[in-house]
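Objective 1b. Sequence-to-structure analysis of HAD family phosphatase.
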Amino acid sequence: MDGTLVDTEVLWWRSTERIARGLGHELTDADAPEVVGRAVEDTAAHLVRVSGGGDPSEVARGLTADFFRAVEAGAPMRPGAQRLLTALEAQGVPFALVSASPRLVVDSVVGGSLAHVPFAFTLSADDTDRTKPHPDPYRSAAERFGADVRDCVAVEDSPDGAASAEAAGCRVLVVPSLLEVPPSPVRTFARSLEEVTPELLRACLRGGVPRQDRPGSQAARPSSSTTPST
């Protein structure tokens, strides 16, 4: 969801910046691997470690509340997302949303920016014992579909999301957002969802396609002037 279908990674970074500042820590590029694509609890634990203060549970609640307010104000879809979802629906390809965000945030986005999208179901960080980068979310999604996980393609934008899907046994299509995602034999790369078609997803199941040329170097975090794409 975040950074893949909707442009919420920037919102998440800014929420984390605000909470970190309240703990006396200024977020930098060095924090990005513990923020981008990570579960709320993981980021909260990181902020407590680097700031030397705060209660992880309270920090997690603060992060969730701040991010929820930002998402409620509007989370635009990523370029190409609507076209791809429409094509999948037209061809009868079932798809679900598998997110490391809390259920509160998932429901807000699915009831707002993605209200018109016919997901088979949604999975949030609250729906499995462990969330990304562990394999539990994608294994659970395959079970919900009644499908072999090896017949599923996960579309991901972050290192943790790609690691989760790969560990579960999925083929992975990576469309990076804020962090560069390392290659692997089961990962196919695209620069944008505007390049992605149902045919490309089927090619992933057949063993993938040649890796797309990397886009320009990925920014580890948005600058203060970054505006979400529309």
